[in-house]
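Re: the 352-residue chain
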Amino acid sequence: MKDKYITILAVVALVVAMFVILDDNSDNDAYADRAAERAQATDELHRERHNIITRTVAESSPAVVGVNVTKIRQYRDPFIPSPFYNDPFFQRYFGERSYTQRVESLGSGFIVSPDGYIVTNDHVAGAAVEIVVTLTDGRHLEAKIVGTDPVSDITLLKVDETGLPHLSFGDSDDVIIGEWVVALGNPFGLFEVNEKPTVTVGVVSATDMNLEPVDRRYYIDMIQTDAAINGGNSGGPLVNSVGEVVGMNTIIYTSGNSRGSIGLGFAIPINKVKRVIEELKEKGEIDRNFYTGMAVQNIDDEVMNYFKLESSKGVIVTRIVRDSPAADAGLEPGDVIVELGGYRVNNQQTLL
C-alpha cells in the first residue's frame, strides 16, 4: 500500500513538472515574440530616418565647396575732401593720400562638371585676386575666374582637377510653390570646421520675385525660400528633394540690425544661371551692348489715369526710332510693356 502511495505521488509530481516546463516554454516563446516585435519596430524607425531629404543631402554634399577669396580694396584718407583727390596740384605737394588693403572673405559654391567648373556669386568672388576652394574630401584647390557678370551676380570658376563630384541642373521653370528644398553652403565659414556644408531645409515660398537692385546687381524672377540662408551661404546651391539644383542662394532680407535669417532668402533661378555660365565659358563675359531704338518711362499715377491702366507695373513706350529693332517689332509710342522674354517687367530697372 505504501509503495502504491509513493507511485501515485511520483506521477502527480511528474505531471506538475511537465506543466511547469510547458508554462516556462510558453513564457519564453512570448518573450521571444515581444523581443522580435521590438527589434522590428526599431528597424522600421531607423529606416524612416533615412528619407528623401537625407538621401538628397548625402548625394549633393560632395559637390558643394567653400569659397575663400582675397580682394584688394582701396581706401582714401577720410579727412581729405573728395574733390582734392584727383587734383594735380594737391597730389603734387601732398602725394596720393590713399592706400590699399588685402581683405579676406568667404562664400559658397557648387561644382557643375567633373572637369572642375564651379559656380558662385559675383559678389563673392568676382573681384578676387586669389581664390581657394575647399572640397569635402579636405583638399584646398586654387581656382581661377573663367568669367563673371556683376549684373546677374554670377561668376564661373575653374579648378585644375578632373573626376569631381558635381550636381545636376533641374528646371527652375518647373519649381512648385510649397515643395521641399535644401540649401547647402558655408555660413559664417563653418565649412572649414569639418569640411562639410551646412544644411538647412525649407520650402519654396514664392517664385518670379523681382527685387530692388543692390550695388548695380539686378535680381529678377528670384526664387524665395524659407530655408535658412545666412552670411557665407551666398553662391551655394538650392536643390529640390531629388537633388537637382533649382537655384543659387544669393541674397537675404533681414530685420533691423540682425544679420541672420528671418526666413526670407532668395535664389537665382538655375535656368538663368545655365544661360549665363554658358556664355561666360565661351566669351568670359556677358555682352550687354544692345540697341532697341525705343525710349520708355515708368508708369506713374498720371499715366495710369490717362491710359486707364489698372496697375503701375510695367513701362510705357514714349519714343520709337524709325527703322530700329523696336520699330521692326511693331512697337509704338503708348504701348505698355509688362513682360519681356518670359520675365515680368515692373519698371525701367527690370527692363535693363
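Residues 2-49 form the longest helix (48 residues).
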